[in-house]
Amino acid sequence: MATLGEDPKRLGIFFFFDAQGIVDSYVETLLADMVKNLSELVIVVNGELTAKSYAKLGVFTDNIILRENKGLDVWAYKTALDSYGWKKLSEFDEVVLFNATIMGPVYPFEEMFTEMAGRDIDFWGITWFHEVSFDPFGYALEGYLPRHLQSHFHAYRRSLVTSKAFQDYWDEMPEINGYEQSVGMHEVPFTQRFERLGFTSDVYVNTEDMEGFNFCPILFAPVEIIRDKRCPIFKRRSFFRPYDDVLRQCVGQPSAELYAYLRDHTDFDTDLIWDNALRSMNMADLVKNLQLTYVLPTQTVTREPKQQKVALIAHLYYMELVEPTLEYIRNMPEGIDIFLSTSSPEKVEQVKVACQGLPYNIEVRLVENRGRDVGPFLVGWKDVIHNYDVVCYTHDKKVTQLYPYSVGDGFAYKCFENLLPTRDFVKNVIATFDAEPRLGFLAPTPPNHADYFPVYTFGWGPNFDHTKTLLHELGINVPLDPDKEPIAPLGSMFWFRPKALKPLFDHDWQWEEFPPEPCPIDGTLMHAIERAHGYVAQGAGYYCGWLFSDSFARIELTNLSFYVRDLTSAIADHWERGTETRMVELIRDNRTTRQRIKDGVKEQAKEAKMKVGPWVPAPLKGPLKTMYRRARGLVR
Fold first, then answer.
1. pLDDT tens across 5-31, in order?
2. Residue 396 — left, alpha, or beta (φ > 0 → left; ψ -120 to 50 → alpha)?
3. Would you say the pTM of this structure is higher than 0.85?
C-alpha cells in the first residue's frame, strides 16, 4: 500500500462503445476533465467508429486502439493492459480504468483524485454496489454478490499492478461473452478476490449508510450521493433502465429527480444528456424513466409564459361539431393566429359565420377531402407552420364505428380535455415549452376505456413497419421497438414546436400522396404519420411527453387504478399473488399453479430415476411406482 505524492504518474484507460460508432458531447466533456488528472491516456474502442468521432477522441490522445466488438469492457481493458506490458505499467503510480457508461463530471475530478491520493490503499473506485444475498448472474462461487467496487471506474495503485496475483488475473482472464459474464466474472468478484489476498480497497463515495436501503445507490439514490457525498458522476443507464426493474426496487422517482437536480442545482449541462439520449435511447424508456408526463393546472397559472408566437391549426369536417370544437379553441390566448380548414365551399362559409366575433386572427381555407385530418395539417398549412414558436393542432372528432357512440365521444373528450380545457391550462402549456427548450411535442395518452382498452397497450397496431419505413424516408434514424409503446398522438391532437417537426414538413407533402375516401380504419399512411410525429421530433433533437390536465388526471388515475386491481384479482385467482413482474411471468408461462407443481414433481421424479433407477432392486420397483402415483394424486 502507498499514498500518492503531489504529482503522481497516472495512466488512464478509457473504454468506448457505441452501436453507431458516434462519440457524443458528453464523452468529450467527461474526457476533457479527466485528462487533467492523467499523465497518459489510451482509448480502446470496441467496434466501428466514425471518422468524425475518431477525430473527437484524437483531441485527447494519439493512442487509440480500435478492436473487434468482442469481450465487452473487460477484454477492452485487457487489450490496453497487454499493449503496455507489465514492465511499463509498473512505472505508473496509478492505473485508472473507466468507461462511457458514466456521465459527468458534476464536480471536478481533481477533488476526487486529490482526496484519494492521500489514502493508503491498493485500489479504489468511485461507488459501491452493495451486497446481494443471491446471485442473479450464476457465476458467484458462494451463491451471493459481495459488496464490490463498480467497474465503471477502477483505480489500481502500483502495489497491486506489480503483484503476481493481479498480473495472473488479467493474463488468464477468459473471453467474456455477454453482460452477465462481464459483471458476474469480473466486476462482482474482483474486489473481494483481492481483498482476501491481502490488498486494501476503498471507495470515494462511501454509501455504507445505505447498505440494506438499496443495492445500487448510483442508480437508486443518485441525488443523495451527488448532493450529500459529492459524487462526480452518474450513470447513463439512469435514463433507459427496464422499468420493471425500476419498480422492483423503488417507486420510480430516482431518474426524474436526478435530471431535475442536475438541471436546477448544478452547473452540469443537461443538453449533454439529451444529445446522447435522443440519438441512442428509445423514447418510451425516456418517458417512463424521466417521468415525462406533464400534469398541468386548469384553474391557475403556475408561471406566465414569455412572449412567443403561438398559433392553432384545426381541421373541421363535421359541421354539427363546429361549435363544440370552437368552445375549446376559445381557450387559446386572444389575438393569436388561428387557421381553420374544411372540405367544401359551403362548409367554409359556415365556419366563417361561426367564427364571427372571435378575438383572433382567423383564416379559413378550403382543402381537399384527402388524408382525413392529417392531409390538411401537412399540405394545407405547410406554408405558415414555421412562422411560429409553439402550435396546437386539433380537429373535430366523431367516431361512428363503435357502439354506443358515447364510447367514441369519450375518446374525443379525453383529447380535448387534455389539450385545451381552460385558458389557464393553455398558458401553462406554452410556459412549459418555454421552460424546457428541448421539449418538442406533447400529446394526450391513448384511450383505455371500453373497446379502446387494448389500444392503450398495443398502440402500434398494424402500423409499425409502415412507420419505420416512413421515418427512414424522412431521414430519421432513432431507436424503434415494436414491443415498446409508441409515444404518439393516437387521436392526432397535440402541441408541438415547429422546429421539432421540421423534417416532417420538409418532405413537402402533396395531396396525391394520401388515399382518397373511403379510407380503411387502420394501417394507412395517415396512421403511420400519426405514430411518427414523436420520433420525428426525437430525430430533430427534441423529446416528447404525455400531457394531462389536472382535472382529467383524476379520471385517468381512477380508471388505471381500477384496471390494475381488476386484472390483479383475476390473475391471482388463476395463478398466485406476487409482484407485478412475478405475476406477469406466471401468465406468460401459461401454466396454472397446480400444473406447475405437477410438472415439478414429474421433473424431480425423472431426475431421481436417472440417479437411482438402475440400482433399484426389481422387487421394489412396483411398490415405488405405486407410491409415486399416490404422490401425484395429491396434487391433481
1. 788 999 999 999 999 999 999 999 999
2. beta
3. yes
